[in-house]
Design goal:
Number of strands: 14
CATH class of the largest domain: Alpha Beta
Helix content: 10-25%
Number of domains: 2
Distance between the termini: 28 Å
Strand content: 15-25%
Largest sheet: 5 strands, antiparallel
CATH architecture of the largest domain: Alpha-Beta Barrel
Order of helices and strands: HEEEEEEEEEEHHHHHEEEE
Shape: globular
CATH topology of the largest domain: N-terminal domain of MutM-like DNA repair proteins
Length: 310
Amino acid sequence: MPRVPELPEVESLRRDLAATLVGRTFASVDVRLAKQVLTPTGLSVEHIIGQQIEEIRRRAKFLIFDLSGGLALVFHLRLAGQMIHRDAEQATLASGGHPVPAYDAPMPHRSTHVIFHFDDGSILYLTDIRQFGRVWVLPDAGVDQLIEQAKLGPEPLDPSFTVDMLRERLARRQKMPLKPVLLDQHVIAGIGNIYADEIIFASRLTPATRVGDLDDAALVRLHRAIKDVLGLAVREGVAEILNGRATMTRDFPRVHGRKGQPCPVCGRPIVKNQFAGRGTYTCPECQPYAGDGVQGVQSGDPAGVSEEAG
DNA sequence: AACTACTCCTGGAGGC
DNA sequence: TGCCTCCAGGAGTAGT
């Protein structure tokens, strides 16, 4: 199954690229698809040539390269962006993002749209079969502005993201179903469709559960699930992407992409349906109202949670 | 302000 | 086998 880069994938990529790219200096840049590179007036991508990568940071799904000359490169991989760093002999040093094309495919691929060459002969390929990803070339101050404009919610893995903060973030979305709220980057940053399903399953809630119907116990469960699911994915280094092909570890993801397979908790088949316009995977037994619309949530069962099944 | 619909893309899956 | 159609999916924007 194709995998869209979400917070854990971007964080893994950040960690790997930081190990191989910090200290490298840009020697040249080859932009093959102009729309993917955005620059404010007066700046062009050539301005990064001769600048050194000092630090690689992440905010939500944005990857930020801080450069020596007061500029920064900001990447957003969106649906299908992929970054591969190879040495002069084309041996892969670091790779991440969407697994298509395979990480060991010949580069540049026909969907490789931006190529960065470094002073040590190594090359960073930005490949994107959907062409939705973006790269910004910005002055330092412009990075803050870009992040500010995105009005991103808090980082869910930051220690400052507490149950109280979650409650406060959800307060203005009381009438909305849980799934689209989790996907809303303004509420909490970094969660995409795959991890939303995993978090909701781990919380033993349903995609349709109204945020306003969450009681304290459900909020605590939801908070723990966000931390656990994302934290595990970051710690495991997103092991389901191996050799550039999306596979699944034995037990992750637990429901997403597993239509018809047994639920890891109760053994009943996982069901796939559409919710809020997104492919949504649930266990009808552990998440009993999963297939219903918003109206399906019963007020007598605020969390929409079934009996503990193990 | 809150929410929905539409838009951008193309590999891959499914139908016949 | 091959041709055709349609879907996925983050996030910005326009419309209600």
